[in-house]
Design a protein that fits this description.
It contains 11 helices and 10 strands. By secondary structure, the chain is an alpha/beta fold. The strands form 2 sheets. Strands 1-2-3-5-7-10 form a 6-stranded mixed β-sheet, sandwiched between helices. Strands 4-6-8-9 form a 4-stranded mixed β-sheet. It has a single domain, classed as 2-enoyl-CoA Hydratase, Chain A, domain 1, CATH 3.90.226.10. It is globular. β1 and β2 form a beta hairpin.
Length: about 270
């Protein structure tokens, strides 16, 4: 595991995994995805660990997938099949927290964007700061990747409201009321509440925790959780090669991200 990208430490029965790319708002690249898998391997193999906290360093939980070309090839370079596989690789990392035999807690603050929201929801329990800025992608280049998670957790109406509007944003307080998170708390209370909850969970014997988690997850599995999650990669890969997405990437290339967003506002008569 790359210690500068993902940090891992333990305190008694609690393991804490920290996404550590603060300058990039903890954007997910291949190194971080691999680091998250390695950290979970480590926590699962340690019999002393009974609960796991996932958090982000700096001023964000996670800003989603790293869209910098240096983070990986763009869809046109990959082709639709390899693009789909790349997306499924990210989703498999998120689902890894769902599948982990030990309870996982997402400790969310600051910014939580796109793929970062998926990671937060994939954890068993999600605690957010009330002022957290929870956001969909700022420019429409895909579809299905993020909204598949949101649909299952908050319902199709709210998912459509957010997904149809590029750059849509809600506070942690509103997102929690929709079902995105268990609790929205003052920012200074998120970390101590996460630690307290993890220690309260650790009072339950680990074999019982494992069975309890499997029992609850099995209900969502019967409702199509896994198929919906992985299917999001299929829809997103298709969207990446649509004429609309190609046009959006052309604008980003010519105008930069801020310029492309401004052009959408002009097109819609909002500027």
């Amino acid at each position: 595991m790359s210690d500068d990208v993902v940090l891992y430490d333990t305190d008694g029965p609690v393991a804490t995994i920290t996404m550590n790319r603060p300058a990039k708002l903890n954007a997910l690249n291949h190194a971080m995805l691999d680091g998250l898998h390695a950290a979970l391997d480590r926590a699962e193999a340690d019999p002393a660990v009974r609960a796991i906290i996932l958090r982000g360093a700096g001023r964000a939980f996670c800003s989603g997938m790293d869209l910098d070309p240096s983070a990986g090839k763009i869809p046109e370079q990959l082709g639709i099949a390899d693009d789909r596989d790349d997306l499924r690789r990210a989703i498999a990392t998120f689902v890894r927290f769902w599948d982990c035999p030990k309870p996982t807690i997402a400790q969310v603050h600051g910014f939580c964007i796109a793929g970062g929201t998926m990671l937060a929801m994939a954890c068993d329990i999600t605690l957010v700061s009330a002022d957290c800025r929870i956001r969909f992608p700022s420019i429409p280049v895909g579809g299905g990747f993020v909204s598949s998670f949101w649909t299952l957790f908050v319902g199709p109406k709210k998912a459509k409201e957010l997904d149809f509007v590029a750059g849509s944003e809600v506070t942690g307080a509103d997102a929690a009321s929709w079902g995105f998170a268990n609790h929205a708390l003052p920012v200074e209370e998120v970390e101590p509440r996460s630690q307290l909850l993890a220690r309260q969970i650790s009072r339950t014997p680990p074999d019982l925790l494992r069975i309890k988690k499997a029992a609850i997850n099995s209900v969502s599995e019967r409702q199509g959780f896994r198929q919906a999650m992985m299917g999001g990669a299929d829809w997103d890969a298709i969207c990446h090669f649509s004429q609309g997405a190609l046009e959006m990437r052309r604008r980003i290339g010519e105008m930069g991200l801020k310029g492309a967003i401004a052009s959408l506002d002009r097109d819609a008569g909002l500027a």
